[in-house]
Amino acid sequence: MKRFLAAVIFLFSCNALFAQNAEVSEPNKIDAKNGIGGGVFGPINDNGVGGICYQRWLTDNFALEAGGMINMTTENYSYYSTPLWYDVWLEADFKIYEHYKNYNIASRLYLWVLAAHAGEWKSDYVPETSHYDLNDKWVTDTPSYYTDPYLHAMIGAGVGVGFDLLLFSHLSIPIKFGFVGGSYGISMTMGTGLKYIF
User: Fold this and answer.
1) Is residue 177 a contact partner of residue 16, using CB atoms and an 8 Å limit?
2) Looking at the DSSP assignment, which residues form a beta bridge with residue 139?
3) CB atoms closer than 10 angstroms to residue 78
4) Do 87 and 118 touch, CB atoms closer than 8 A?
5) 24 pLDDT band (50/70/90 cuts)?
6) Which of 18, 153, 175, 177 is least surrounded, with the fewest CB atoms within 10 Å of its CB?
7) Structural contact between residues 40 and 53, judged by C-beta atoms closer than 8 angstroms
8) Whole-model pTM?
């Protein structure tokens, strides 16, 4: 909890730095309602959630962001094989404060609520079973093998605060702190990324 409070204070401090000068006139504000880019946010599962995303500010104070990623591999691991892994997420952002230092630099503080789903098409590794017989000879009962592939699905949800640094009228660098939870438990997390806004 102390780390989360420290993160919140840090985000408010970042916004305060940009608010030292008087706000610019309305025509100079960065009027960008859409954002396309990528980011990472975890841990919704062991690998976290990340990928490409699209954000849309539906009103001046409310935005929706959706994203996802798919990863296909042929690697075999010691205890499992994961030929396919994916994640999708939906995030709602509620703006608390926004400041425009000039036409090229702005900052935004907001609350976020996240819902995510991740899954992997995997096969579990089953080690061989063996024993020593009466003649002290090593005998294999069943050889090792991989189970038939199945979908291992996970869901998660989270809430927290975020800070957006808007640069050159078309770049957004979000920094997010909060808590996420799911079948794996609850933990503090952070996320970041880069978006082109227009």
Assistant:
1) no
2) 131
3) 7
4) yes
5) very low
6) 153
7) no
8) 0.70
